[in-house]
Design a protein that fits this description.
This protein is of the alpha/beta class. The chain has 2 domains: 194 residues, no CATH class; 278 residues, Rossmann fold. Strand 9 and strand 10 form a beta hairpin. The longest helix has 20 residues. The radius of gyration is 28 Å and the shape is elongated. The chain starts with 14 loop residues before the first strand and ends with a helix.
């Protein structure tokens, strides 16, 4: 791909499923459910160890035996771990073979039909290994369709590819009905520590939000819209949105991730998995991925993303209790992140027009107003800028940038927005600096990212309303202590001088060729700062 250097490229071969287990052997005779209450803990464990495990009857009796051990009070930690391990294995085995007929055992399951076990998922990368939390049961992932017959999102705030949710499957006490043993498997949605009672004991159900995300990754096709969104935004328009990774919550802080030029939300897979694999962070933050066609300029896209975020805020919390947010932006996504978290007052307007807004804007010019005049979406912001060209990029001014710009077809709605407004107020109302960019009714994203663009220059002097952190990529030195040495640092697309902002709480340099979203150092830095928020 010609402009991979300006953006990011993705793949979606993320996990493989284990081979189906060998069916359990057939058992003969009739079902008997032994009374285990008279055995002491040592004898009960020995009985569990001796139980055969090749038939549905044997696995069910193992489940019965370990359930009894787990229900007791005075069980050593070693014996409890033994019981949990074998109970969980029995639950998973019976779930996998729930549809196989057995003359002695009946497995009753009434949960989602589209569901699979986390233990059957083999990630193709170690960094995408999902963590399972909890003690008891089989962690699972369910799938719910989110694509309508018109190929649109049934729920606009979840990915078109489907809603993948973390579940836990566990068994209650085995019962004997007639000559058959009955096992009831319960499948319950779990996205936080959830306990079940076994007589006198409580156990946390096993679950994995990371596995649910891995399921989404495997089905994702959004990466097919990175190049399309760059070159022909109108054709990628149907996929634009803010999509929740996991259940929406009015009590969790939104953590919003914005991709850059010629890119898509799959670039955030490592950071997303790292957060979901940290139980503390996953309980404090809800992850929202944003996809936007990246051909139009960031100021226009920020206006549209701002609208979507405000709509989602109202949906999640009609009482407006969502006041905090964390926003992570890569490259041009970092520029949009700044536009979502700052209040430039008239700076952007004055860089574009020679007359004040009140003399040019009417009630019908809402979108034009929102491009230039806006407030932060959230009251309290924490922003992470990754490889962000606050002062533009020389690559956008190069031959490659010119080629990229020539490939961009700007959408009709964008051109019409500025054509109608400029024809109404007159070209003479444009500043000399902006005239070359707007006389043909709008620049593309590459043109805006060229050094010294008037809007980028105005935005560079506008602070974030909240805290910000800079992660700067480098293909050479990873530290600098003088202006000359710092100026020599670049990730091949964005220089240190463009990425550095003075008001950042902290700045780090990581090894990156404009892809610091992959950097383990960058991800660890973000995790550490997330843990520190509101301490």
């Amino acid at each position: 791909m010609v402009l991979c250097g300006l953006g990011a490229c993705s793949t979606n071969d993320f996990f493989r499923q284990k081979a189906k287990p060998i069916p359990l052997e057939r058992a003969y005779g009739y079902g008997v459910l032994p009374d285990l209450s008279g055995l002491n803990n040592k004898a009960l464990k020995a009985k569990c160890e001796q139980q055969e495990r090749t038939t549905a009857l044997g696995v069910t009796l193992l489940l019965h035996c370990t359930y009894e051990l787990l229900s007791r009070k005075n069980v050593s930690a070693e014996n409890r771990q033994f019981a949990l391990h074998h109970y969980n294995w029995a639950v998973g085995t019976l779930f996998q073979q729930r549809d196989i007929q057995s003359n002695l055992v009946q497995v009753n399951y009434s949960g989602p039909s589209k569901i699979f076990l986390v233990d059957d998922m083999i990630p193709t990368e170690d960094r995408l290994q999902p963590t399972v939390f909890g003690q008891l049961g089989s962690a699972a992932v369910s799938f719910q369709k989110n694509r309508s017959s018109e190929n649109t999102n049934i729920d606009p705030n979840f990915p078109l590819e489907g809603i993948f949710s973390s579940f836990s499957i566990y068994a209650s006490a085995v019962t004997l009905e007639g000559l058959r043993l009955h096992v009831t498997l319960h499948a319950v949605p779990v996205n936080k520590t959830t306990y079940v009672d076994f007589s006198q004991q409580q156990y946390a159900l096993r679950y994995s939000e990371g596995a649910a995300f891995l399921g989404l990754l495997q089905s994702a096709d959004i990466h097919n819209f990175s190049w399309l969104g760059f070159t022909n935004a109108e054709k990628a328009e149907s996929r634009m949105g803010v999509f929740s990774i996991g259940a929406l919550s009015s009590s969790k802080t939104p953590l919003i991730m914005l991709h850059g030029l010629n890119s898509d939300p799959l670039i955030w897979r490592y950071l997303t998995m790292a957060i979901l694999n940290d139980e503390t962070l996953s309980q404090r933050f809800q992850i929202w991925h944003v996809y936007y066609p990246s051909g139009p300029p960031p100021f226009y896209n920020a206006m549209r993303v701002r609208k979507l975020l405000n709509q989602l805020k109202v949906r999640v919390s009609p009482e407006s209790s969502l006041e905090n947010a964390v926003i992570v932006g890569h490259s041009m996504g970092g520029v949009i992140a700044k536009l979502l978290t700052s209040q430039p007052h008239d700076k952007l307007w004055d860089a574009t027009f020679t007359s004040p807004p009140e003399s040019l804007l009417s009630e019908d010019d809402t979108d034009v107003r929102d491009v230039f005049l806006f407030s932060p979406v959230f009251k309290h912001n924490t922003v992470f800028f990754l490889d962000t060209p606050h002062r533009g990029s020389d690559v956008a001014n190069s031959l490659i940038g010119s080629i990229g710009s020539s490939l961009i077809s700007l959408p009709f709605n964008f051109r019409e927005l500025f054509r109608g407004f400029i024809e109404k107020v007159g070209v003479n109302k444009l500043t000399q600096a902006m005239l070359p960019f707007l006389q043909n009714f709008g620049p593309d994203s590459v043109q805006v990212l060229r050094p010294n663009h008037p809007l980028m220059t105005a935005l560079a002097t506008t602070p974030v309303e909240g805290k910000s952190y800079s992660i700067i990529g480098s293909t050479s030195a990873l530290e600098c202590d003088t202006p000359i040495r710092c100026a020599a640092i670049s990730d091949s697309v964005v220089t240190y001088s463009s990425a550095f902002i003075e008001d950042a709480e902290e700045t780090i340099i990581v090894a990156s060729s404009h892809n610091s979203f992959k950097s383990t150092q960058a991800i660890q830095f973000i995790l550490e700062k997330l843990h520190d928020i509101d301490k």
